[in-house]
Design goal:
Elements (H helix, E strand, L loop, with lengths): L1 H30 L1 H19 L4 H18 L2 H7 E8 L7 E2 L1 H12 L2 E16 L2 E14 L2 E16 L2 E11 L21
Parallel strand pairs: 1-6
Antiparallel strand pairs: 1-2, 3-4, 4-5, 5-6
Helix pairs in contact: 3-4
């Protein structure tokens, strides 16, 4: 009886150890650079399939929708897939242009951390393609909760996009704010009424 109890205990210990080792191996395999590269490749292929057969204008429109969706939910990886690493951004607030994805990301994350229930709608989009370069302009309505207070702003954005490796990315974003309508709640004066580049 003691021998049988000891064997069961030993099997449990070995079983837990085996489960732990398998979980660690799985985790390491998914965190390795090769696994990450393969995962990104599959994601890029899936994204490419979404736009196969679409005109350049439709691909850009789709990319803008993905960019705005990523901004709303805070999906930094998806957001980065729509912006070039060397992007330049001019915001609707009185601030110097933001140069490069890394600088924009820091600004975006700082502002996004203060926002909840973000919603941004795009209307009146116009897209013009000239070879591997294009521009798009659109109006937007931005609604969110900033530091617990409701806010709303409206404006217009013009983006310059470039086709790189068969994929349209934003290389320049210029955003302009419109004055708030009477009775509209906006963010405090020291805070931009719209996160830079949204």
């Amino acid at each position: 009886m003691k021998k049988q109890f000891g064997m069961v205990r030993l099997l449990r210990v070995w079983g837990r150890t085996l489960v732990f080792l398998l979980a660690a191996a799985f985790l390491l395999a998914n965190l390795s650079p090769a696994a990450q590269k393969e995962k990104k490749k599959k994601k890029d292929e899936a994204d490419s399939l979404k736009t196969t057969g679409l005109s350049d204008e439709q691909q850009i429109d789709f990319m803008l929708s993905e960019m705005m969706g990523a901004l709303q939910v805070g999906d930094v990886e998806k957001l980065h897939s729509t912006y070039a690493d060397d992007v330049s951004m001019v915001s609707g607030s009185w601030a110097p242009p933001v140069m490069g994805w890394a600088n924009y990301l820091a600004t975006y994350q700082q502002q996004r951390a203060r926002l909840q229930r973000v919603r941004m709608d795009r209307t009146n989009t116009y897209i013009k393609v000239k070879g591997d370069v294009a521009w798009a302009c659109y109006q937007w309505n931005f609604i969110a909760t900033l530091d617990g207070q409701p806010m709303q702003s409206q404006g217009q954005t013009t983006v310059v996009v470039e086709k790189r490796n068969g994929h349209w990315v934003i290389v320049h974003n210029h955003t302009s704010l419109t004055p708030p309508a009477p009775g509209t709640t906006t963010a405090p004066q020291q805070t931009p009424t719209k996160p830079n580049g949204l």
